Amino acid sequence: MDMATVASTPPLPDSRGASTEPNTPEPFDDNSFAKLLPLNQLARLAVDKTAQTGSDYHQTFIGETMLNDYLIKCFVLSLDNLPLFSHIGWRIGKGRRSGSLQHRGVDLLLDSDQQDDGVAGIHARFNWVKGASGFFLIADNKSGKTVTMDGEEFGGDQRLVQRKNMIMIGECVFTLHYTVRDSVKEAQFQLDLRHFFRRCYGERHPLILPTPGENDSRIGDWIFQQPLSSGGFGIVHMVINSRTGLPAAAKRILKCERNEQSVDREIIMARRISQFTHERICSPQEIIHLDLRRSKSEIKDRIKMYLDDKWTPTAENLTDEYIIISPLLNATFCSLYGSDVSLSGRKIFFSQLLEAIAFLHDQGIWHRDIKPANILVRSYDPPDAMLTDFGCASDKQVIRFDGTGTPRYLAPEQQYGELHGKEVDYWSCGIIGLELIRGRIIESRIKLRDDGNLDLDHKDMANLTSPDLLSKCSRAMLQVETGMRMTAAQGLKLLQSP
């Protein structure tokens, strides 16, 4: 290495260790989704040498960016410039000088003459993983070399690369900086990434998560990304497991004096349902309990983030925080309604919903909030659905109505101060069946007219009087008298009859 090259490299306190966390590089003006920036002297020398003497192929992955007021060479990762074997990702290492491996077996060449830098010929890979979500560092080289990311050393395994990261390939230290985009460009990138999954992995419906953002946080093995929905006492986040890349939904609940009983009831029910392994039940994967032993100012900020404007508890009122983590799927029955799934396919989906309800009722549990958004679709063909969100579930034989549930799917007996039981689940299923037939969500709650009949329009009445089995089931469940409603088990038996 000549002295000019060494002099052009920004000085660091320790040529073997990492620098302090770098300033954010200049915004990317190309189509890259990330840049791998060298942080210590060994890494920078290796990247610089590749830029000067590497092959034309290896130089296609080299770019420049500003870091700590220096213009440095770095590796550029882009869907417009895929590696040689896109299904296995961007391979990084010294490369193998002997043998017949094309491009020395690597895409990101660390062209170093150092013998003690600990870098193998093919050391690790960067890529997405089939069946998972997010961008990974994968250490699976044949020489048994490990990698270190954020202080964790691992080999023969993979880890999700978070927004803020520090990666050691041997003694070479890097950080991966993701491209920051506006919402329009992020949406386009997700379309491009979906195409990448289809072409490289054959996945028709991959789950594409947002690019890691500045506000992402981590609790245990879970990385919390964007919020999906919010309610009176908490918020649901999209999360991803840092080890497996499996996505999930995390419901964060703040507990205080006002909601103490309802939170305790929900956590007890979540722990009970987490023991179930039924294929139609989306059981919680993990329940995390956090003591709110933080500063008052931090807790107040969390209140503003997670709770609605209807109540403003003080930091002293809050006692605990719970996080219920459940599987996250691509679609719900909401998307099924407008799809091209046939009536026979919709009947199968409906029978799977009844299967879930029948199982729950056999366990002495009533869901009490059956709606399209709580029925997840794992696959359209073959039909595959499961029931989720048991925050309103109860095991009491009768319970006084307190506003729990979604208005459009409430049974006639669900009136304030009135008692109701498991039969409300059958009514909700009847509404779901009607929606599957009509192909859209009902506009408002179905009520009783003065003559005692339901206020259905003519088309919906025609649907319910149709001779097909789905219509029969729905009609039998939409009975005003609770004792006259068809049960989930009875409906399942009817749908499965020859």
UniProtKB/TrEMBL annotation:
SMART domains: S_TKc (SM00220). Transmembrane segments: none annotated. SUPFAM superfamilies: Protein kinase-like (PK-like) (SSF56112), SMAD/FHA domain (SSF49879). GO terms for biological process: mitotic DNA damage checkpoint signaling. GO terms for cellular component: cytoplasm; nucleus. Signal peptide: none annotated. GO terms for molecular function: ATP binding; protein serine/threonine kinase activity. Gene3D superfamilies: Phosphorylase Kinase, domain 1 (3.30.200.20), Transferase(Phosphotransferase) domain 1 (1.10.510.10). Residues 222-498 form the Protein kinase domain. Residues 1-30 are annotated as: Disordered. It comes from the Eukaryota. PANTHER family: OVARIAN-SPECIFIC SERINE/THREONINE-PROTEIN KINASE LOK-RELATED (PTHR44167), SERINE_THREONINE-PROTEIN KINASE CHK2 (PTHR44167:SF24). This is Kinase-like domain-containing protein.
